[in-house]
Amino acid sequence: MRILIIEDDKEAASYLVKAFREAGHVADHAADGLDGYAMAEEGDYDVLVVDRMLPKLDGLSLIRSLREQRVETPVLILSALGQVDDRVKGLRAGGDDYLPKPYAFSELLARVEVLSRRRSSAPSAEPTIYRVADLELDRLSHRVTRSGQEIVLQPREFRLLEYLMKNANQVVTRTMLLEHVWDYHFDPQTNVIDVHVSRLRAKIDKGFDKPLIHTIRGAGYMVRVGQEGDEE
Amino acid sequence: MSALGKLVRTTAFKLSLAYLLIFTIFAFVGLGYVAWNAQRLLTDQFVSTIESEINSLSDQYRFGGLRRLVNIVERRSRAPGAMLYLVTTEAGERVAGNVGALPPGVIGRTGQFETLYNRTDETEARPDMAIVRVYLLPGGFRLLVGRDIEERRRLQEVIYRAFFYSLLFIVVLGCVGGWFITRRVLKRVDDMTEITRHIMTGDLGGRLRIAGTGDELDRLAQNLNDMLDRIGELMRGMREVSDNIAHDLKTPLTRLRNKADEALRTASTPDELKSALEATIEESDNLIRIFNALLMIARLEAGNAREGLADFDAAEAVRDVAELYDALAEEAGVSLTVSVEDDLPVHGSRELLGQAMANLLDNALKYGSAAGGKPQTIGVSAHRRDGEVRIAVADRGPGIPASERGRVLERFVRLETARSRPGFGLGLSLAAAVARLHGGALLLEDNEPGLRVILAMPLKAAELPPAPLQSAA
User: HSE of A148 in the Cβ direction (CA atoms, 13 Å)?
Assistant: First the structure.
């Protein structure tokens, strides 16, 4: 995955470049808004990570200009402003995700990976049925089956599983779940999300040999065909 | 600015000047009217006297011809009074009468007019004014009958003098009065300016004097004082918060530093180093959380978040959060009962209300455990009452004594009983700030036993009233 980091703080940028490279991605860096705009327009990047406050051309204007030029590369906005209306402004400008500073790198990585996958999957409609191993989720009939056996889920549990399966083989963090399943953006101080996931896990994985919902230590959750040794 | 310049520029001075002008005009019009009327009356009187005199003289002339007329004129001329008589020849030589010199050409005219004249019996040469009527008699003789109008002139003089003195009086009185009023007002304004400048330089304790007259200056002073009170309150709040921040952030910062230091000195295996680093990150995350919560409260209290508000259904929002926490409660062996009335439209932020609710539920789960290990219940409800939505989170825990309820809404306040459990003492402050942003308040009540926290906010209205400043307890 090719990532362009547009960030004027040198230290933060080099930390990000290094961390993304360690995670196996290609990461470039632009130090101001104009450079970033030029590189984003020419280079074939999968995701742009844009700081909101940049010299020469601020982050939101940069995104707006890119969108006007029909550059549809997914953008994640990094900002020291973490309030509700700032997020709304960022997304309205054409950003795809918004992460307030300071953030954990695992959170940023998970979000960037989800964004890039959204790009590589065809822009045509999402499949109506998600499949992971023997687990199937039908988005139209709202039915979930495993090995042909129907599993009854509450509406919220269904949405939780839907989001996890949509991003199968990707790390999904707790805040991403809170955002997409409950539509809240605050930081849940207790393990509210964990409890929901473990309930879901009880319904999905109980009685089956291979667990599909995995806990990724220090990051979040992932639905995939099990690999031993990564479990908590 | 010179003292005079300052005086001239004041509103009081300008008002005085305007009044002065108006009174002067009134005086002019009033006196002018009186003068004009008096003049007219007198002139009318003079003219009618002259007419009656002429009537009687013409009677005499008709009976006795010129001789008789001359005799009558001679006689009447000798009588004291203001009446004037003169009979002349065609050439203007005096035949009889008490009029001496006349300006040249006067006697040649006929009809009624005003002229200067000198009496024959007067020694001084100064001519007086008179209204005269001149008739042409047969044989070229002329008869002049007139009346001295010196009285009228004198009356005019008196009126002019009255004019002058009353004008002088008005101007002097107006200036002096205006000066005093201006001085008085100016003095108070100067005092206010002086005190406010003093306050601006740092002495926030100073207050403006209230004269007790209840006038606009008093009201202004009262408002300024109220504003100063409010500023003082905010400053105190700020100072308190920064003190608290300094104190509450120092503890985790020190812990963070010590942990890193200790790891550097003692940890030898990679595992030990790793766990030390993890602990360090955890501590930093806590610090970030505190910062975020503080920033959010500060922003809410400053009213900055108001622009992102929208209409939403509080019932749905409350159900969502209750559902979010339901699993957690069940895990903790707590039964969460939800009783929410349908359709509760409010204006505000679903996100912030959700966060406030999350804080309240967090608190209820953390501190609301019943004594004696009885199965605990937490009640979440939302109902409308008197145009308000009242969202309540009630637990069966030890509750909060009435005397402490005001205090726990303040930042960083944690009751002794809660010290042992995790938390920063910001949850209720944040919930209270959210309530105020929505034009409502956070109320703490006794749940007998336990604590009931009520987030009251108005049902959807056209606009939000400004948030009340003091925290409701």
Answer: 0
- Which sequence spans correspond to the domains of chain B? 3-154, 216-299, 307-458
Testing the interface with A: which of B331, B357, B426, B428 to mutate, by most A Cβ within 10 A? B331
DSSP code string of A11-73: HHHHHHHHHHHHTT-EEEEESSHHHHHHHHHHS--SEEEEESS-SSS-HHHHHHHHHHTT---
CA B396 to chain centre: 53
We find that the CATH architecture of domain B307-458 is 2-Layer Sandwich (3.30)
Tens-digit pLDDT profile for chain A (232 aa)?
889 999 988 888 999 999 999 888 899 898 888 888 888 888 888 899 999 888 888 888 888 888 888 888 889 998 877 666 778 888 888 888 888 887 888 889 999 988 888 766 555 567 788 888 888 888 888 888 888 888 888 888 899 999 998 888 888 988 889 988 988 888 777 788 888 999 898 888 888 888 888 888 878 898 888 664 444 4
The predicted-structure confidence for B100-111, as pLDDT tens digits, reads as follows: 777 777 777 788
ipTM over 0.90: no
Rounded to a whole number of angstroms, the distance from the CA of A212 to the nearest CA of chain B is 21
Query: B216-299 domain in CATH 2.60.40.10?
Result: no
Global pTM reads 0.61
Structure tokens belonging to residue B404: 């402490």
* CATH code at B3-154: 3.30.450
Query: Quick check: B327 and A189 CB within 8 A?
Result: no
Q: Assess A187–B contact: CB distance below 8 Å, yes or no.
A: yes
